[in-house]
Amino acid sequence: MTESLCETPAPRQQAAQRQADIVALRALLARRIVGQQRLLDRMVVALLTGGHLLVEGLPGLAKTTAVKALAQAVHASFQRVQFTPDLLPGDITGGDVFVPAEGRSRFVRGPLFHDIVLADEINRAPAKVQSALLEAMQERQVTVGASTYALPGMFLVMATQNPLEQSGTYPLPEAQLDRFLLHVVIDYPSAEQERTILDMDLGAGIGGAAGEPPVCAVDADAVLQAREEVRSVHLADSLRQAIVDLVRATRAPEQRDPELAGLVAAGASPRAMLALAHSAQALAYLRGRDYVIPDDIVELAADVLRHRLVLNLEAELRGVDADSLIGRLLGAGAFD
Ligand SMILES: Nc1ncnc2c1ncn2[C@@H]1O[C@H](COP(=O)(O)OP(=O)(O)OP(=O)(O)O)[C@@H](O)[C@H]1O
Ligand SMILES: [Mg+2]
Q: Which CATH number applies to 234-331: 1.10.3210.10, 3.30.310.180, 1.10.8.80, 1.25.40.10?
């Protein structure tokens, strides 16, 4: 037996190193993408919880660039799928194909069988295709006929929606939106950021920093182990209760603020409650802590809840949308 050159670090040190690597990964993404902090944070939160992202933003805001950079940084296989009206479920899941030489059918894997999948313009494909994607996201497997095929352990979907394109689109059914961990809305960069994007494109790099290419220390195994560690980030009793109370308040908002009576047709589900807890744990981990603080929850609340609330006509008439309702619930809650 050969003597090993170095000691295996104690498990605690390994975990601390992994967390530092994830923090470094986030910093690495910021070298490639100017601003869009919220998108970058949410991508890593999704990676750390095994959740999926719905991203709404105009064209050209670096959605593709960001998710590709994430895939490269974690050594993940990446696939982009453009959703179109003529797409069929089998085009994304794959299906059985007859192989004459073998005299039998064999399953050919579709584009979903990648670590990270970008589903572009998800609302341009018909309901059957959306369902196939959302089912795969939830089950983390694909079923064709009597057989089931597991998707990769990392499997992360980032789906995009263009807020301007309404005609010829198929809005996602509300019930299925619940499958997305977070719904992130992104906007234009600032004037200063836009100038940096141009300078970078012309070869200066962010802040003029060139030099050695950075090391990408996170791979699929590290991601899966980090997911385990995120699960044990401390969530204090009072914050657990505040999360439960906030989610329950989306179903009866008038209990927090009488002016919000009669505006909500459907509030958020227990799945949303778990999503808020898990994503707050992941954000805390990403910020280098091993405990959640109220700000983690407040920061993520709108992204976890906005796509899961169904407001009624009365709300529309009174100019109350999901974001303003969530803002008022947070203001009247236990997080100040
Ligand atoms: N914040 C940013 N940081 C760095 N580059 C950016 C940023 N915003 C836009 N870009 C650049 O703009 C171009 C378009 O970006 P990208 O293709 O990622 O946009 P997109 O959001 O995926 O657009 P679409 O919705 O049309 O697919 C790329 O060259 C990208 O590098
Ligand atoms: Mg794109």
A: 1.10.8.80
